UniProtKB/TrEMBL annotation:
One of its GO terms (cellular component) is endoplasmic reticulum. Residues 130-193, 220-277 are annotated as: Disordered. It comes from the Eukaryota. Plays an important role in control of proteasome function. Inhibits the hydrolysis of protein and peptide substrates by the 20S proteasome. Also inhibits the activation of the proteasome by the proteasome regulatory proteins PA700 and PA28. This is Proteasome inhibitor PI31 subunit. It is found in: Cytoplasm; Endoplasmic reticulum. InterPro entries: PI31-like, PI31_Prot_C, PI31_Prot_N. Pfam families: PI31_Prot_C, PI31_Prot_N.
Amino acid sequence: MAGLEVLYTCVSSGISCPQDAVVCFIHWEMIQSGYRCIGSGDEPRSSDKKSELLPSDWSSNKELYSLRYKAKDGDVQLLLKAIAVDSTLIFNLMNSSTQQVSDLTVNISDHVDADQLRTFDSVYKDSDGLSEKVKTQLLPPQDRPKTQRTETRTRREQEEEEEQRRRRDREDSDPLRIPNRHPRQPWPEPMAPPFAAGGADLDPFGSRGGGGMIVDPLRSGYPRSGFDPSSGIPDILPPGAVPPGARFDPFGPVVGRRRPGPDPDHMPPPGYDDMFM
């Protein structure tokens, strides 16, 4: 970890407790990630300038640390705060432009030996583990390792898909839910024999092509006679009695021709009174 020893030696006079050593380590990780410290506190000052060192008053408050950073080659500004809670330090890093916040909780005793604050070679424990936590949890997403960003995105996509699946299950199990106005077809389209058997029963009018079980005389495909009932039937129906295109069932055995008589429909002759005649 080149550079950390130099930094620690420069600020050793301000390190008086284990949390100071943790804050120094986090600051070094920020420098390694391409940021420079521009001052302490929440508000900018006229004396602010980019530096790899910590400000002179960085450890004046042992309960709340507040440092501001700016990208080395950009305008991104970050506000880092560390709050001491019992034996832990809770870090919050906020992007001043987007208000995006990341956080990290560090158990101080896991990474700093409180009895070795004056000896750099012995003060830090599991420095590699702490460095990994900073890179994967505290740094802004764009500064995290590429593989970690991919894993985070994949995990988020999986969580969204799982949430959508649970929502669909809840909707399907709700007895009061109004069903879809466009119900799905409960059976697949018959593709080829023998699955096409019974297609006429499922589609009686033949709307999908092929024959149906109900015959429409106007669309049957068979030749129709030249008889047009709308023109009238001599001595039976006047022209226009049947609207054009209307269904017409002819009455009588032959349309348009007089029936030979007499027949049972005619009146009996005058004077007819013999039932055996």
